[in-house]
Amino acid sequence: MCYQRKIIFAFILIAAYPVSVFSSNKEEKYNTHVLTTQIKTDIIQLEKARVLLLADSFLLLKPVTVTAYSCPRSAGGTHDYYSEATYWWQNPNQPDGPYIRKDGLNNPDNFDNHLKAIGRFSWIVGTETSAYLLTGKKQYAQQAVKHLKAWFVDSATLMNPHLLYAQAIKGVNTGRGIGIIDAVSLIEVVKSVEILQQSPYLSSSDAATIKQWFATFLNWLNTHPYGIDEMNAKNNHGTWWHAQVAAYASFVGDEISLEKCRTFYKNQLLTNQMAIDGSFPLEIERTKPYAYLLFNLDGAATLAHILNSWTFELNDGRGMRKAIDFIKPFILDKTKWPYAKDISHWDEQPGRRPFMIFAAIMQQQPEWVSIWEKCSADFPSDESKRNMPLKNPILWLGISKPLK
């Protein structure tokens, strides 16, 4: 946005407020509001062309759900999500025996068609919903609704609301709690539904069916042993389990689950995951420390944003601000990263991370919009797509209806 437009924008906002707001603490509140609004406006201006170009290309894509692919190794049925553990490989000393783990090395022969399908689904729905918010054009909303109905409403193509068979390991198990992280991209699906249910294009009956799907899925996450295992995970898996649960609970109105997420954020994530310097030691010790730390930070930022807990800090200062301050110099100059380089996909990092958008808005720091803008908006590999589950900033700006 040019300098002149910013001045005009500021005068419009000033004219909308009575003179009394410039007294005492009201002036500070007003200035914060103006700055936050300006940050959101800048994000919209930066995103619009990219979103509309992508949304137009997505208009040609037909829904593809879990029913489009099958794997003979799956213990589930046609409507059950199935994936195989990314870092597990055939044992060269025992070809027909149980697979063995090679942390950080993706096995290209493992079944991941459902994982790609759920990521594609989220990207399409989130982008089309963003385009609808930017333009009000019905074709974008209608395309998003078409994909939503295929996954959650149509009995011929829907996915069952559980992840019993996610990240299975040949010769070891038919699924495991770790596989729940495969569904993180559904967070933006929920954000999209929250917007589209206020439009004329998602019927009340379909919206209710989708809400029931997520209520059932949320119950499974909270009660099945796999869900409980993941809930108690001490690294990024625990973070993203709670980010998912917070998003779904907010959507269906589950206050008990939301309170569980608040407790985790304060008593586990900040207390046990975050170091005093704002880093995440359990991520740094992995074979892809930079990518894992960024991924966990995205999850923590998403959770804090949903719970409106961004400003909460422990007595020693640990909180989102400290985590953001820790990573900032290594975003500005990755060569300063003091730990080992990731063993793969190092050159693709960091990309436009969602935590940057949340930091800009929640901390009223326009610099993070500039940092985000300078990072790559491309996804050069399936790995980069997978590790960036939130791809649509427009969904997170608090816009509920199309812009005029």
Describe this structure in words.
The chain has helices at residues 3-15, 24-58, 113-135, 138-152, 186-196, 204-223, 225-231, 236-252, 255-273, 281-284, 289-307, 320-332, 354-362, 367-374, 382-386, and strands at residues 82-84, 88-89, 100-101, 165-168. With 404 residues, the chain is mainly alpha-helical. It has a single domain (31-396), classed as Alpha/alpha barrel (Glycosyltransferase), CATH 1.50.10.100. The strands form 2 sheets. A two-stranded parallel ribbon has the order 1-4. The protein has a two-stranded antiparallel ribbon with strand order 2-3. The chain starts with a helix and ends in an 18-residue tail after the last helix.
Shape: globular
CATH architecture: Alpha/alpha barrel
CATH superfamily: Chondroitin AC/alginate lyase
| CATH fold node name | Glycosyltransferase
Radius of gyration: 22 Å
**Domain module tally:** 1
N- and C-termini, Cα separation? 18 Å
At the first level of CATH, what is the class? Answer: Mainly Alpha
Structural class of the secondary structure composition? mainly alpha
Tell me, rounded to a whole number, the average pLDDT. 92
The parts where pLDDT drops under 50 for at least 5 residues are 1-23
Beta-strand fraction estimate: under 5%
Q: Summarize the amount of helix as a percent range.
A: 40-55%
Count of beta strands = 4
| Helix/strand order, N-terminal first | HHEEEHHEHHHHHHHHHHH
For the largest sheet, list the strands in their spatial order: 1-4
What is the tally of helical segments? 15
Largest sheet: 2 strands, parallel
